[in-house]
Each structure stands twice: as C-alpha cells, then as structure tokens.
C-alpha cells in the first residue's frame, strides 16, 4: 500500500489529506503525472498556446446542434428576405448596416473610415433598421 496526498491531484485549494491506495493505483497516478508534465513541456517548448477557434468558428460549430432540413430551409428563406430588405436600402445605409452587423465593425470604426461623425453613422444605421423592419413586415 502506498500513501498519497490528495492535494497533489486536485486543483482546488484543499489542506493536506493523505489516503492509502494500492500500489497499482499509485503507479497509475505517477504515470498520469508524468504524461501531464510531458504534455505541458511539449506545449511550452513548441509555444503551442492557441485555441482551435481562431475566429473561424471551428469550436463554435463543433458544439452547435445539427439543424434539420426544415430549419436549414427556414434560415435560408429568412436570410434571403433580409438580403432583399438590405438591397432596397440606399447604398450608404446598406454599406453601413452590412459593416456594422455582418463585419462586426463598431459605429466609431465606420465613422473613422468614412470620415464622418459617429452620430451620423448611428442615425443612418437606425434609420436603415427601421426601413428593414418595414420591408419585412410588408413582405412577411
């Protein structure tokens, strides 16, 4: 029988707590610690500090539920209606709405690029959203 301290194996801040385990369990815990340390060293040496989700949505898409064909069709119709509504907007409003909603640009960024005041961008986007809402209510 081997005696281990559970504090060495649990990440929470607990006081020393010793238990006796069989030699097989103690060996398994040693192997686990060695493998965990080897993985840590491999990441450290190769500077592999990254996530799979590098703004391309890999992790997000992996955890989403699979949609049924009907749900996919409904989403496609909704997107088509939305794009039709945006295409009815004046060109400047359409570009601003697209940049803000689809490209995740802030209103300040859009204003800086266009060389106008942020309040003008805000009014333009708000008016565009009202126009989109009217269009969708009429055609929906």
- What level of helicity do the residues show? 55-70%
CATH topology (level 3) name of the largest domain: Arc Repressor Mutant, subunit A
Give, in order, the helices and strands.
EEHHHHHH
Q: What Rg is obtained from the alpha carbons, in whole angstroms?
A: 28 Å
Mean pLDDT: 85
Q: Tell me how many strands there are.
A: 2
Morphology: elongated
Q: What's the CATH C level of the largest domain? A: Mainly Alpha
List keywords for this structure.
about 140 residues; two-stranded antiparallel ribbon; 2 domains; Arc Repressor Mutant, subunit A; 6 helices; mainly alpha
Protein described:
The chain has 140 residues and is mainly alpha-helical. It folds into 2 domains: 2-45; 67-139, Winged helix-like DNA-binding domain superfamily/Winged helix DNA-binding domain (Arc Repressor Mutant, subunit A). The protein has 6 helices and 2 strands. The chain has helices spanning 23-45, 58-63, 69-87, 91-102, 107-114, 118-139, and strands at 2-5, 18-21. The protein has a two-stranded antiparallel sheet with strand order 1-2. Helix 5 (107-114) packs across helix 6 (118-139). The longest helix has 23 residues, at 23-45. The protein is elongated, with a radius of gyration of 28 Å. The model has no long low-confidence stretch (mean pLDDT 85).
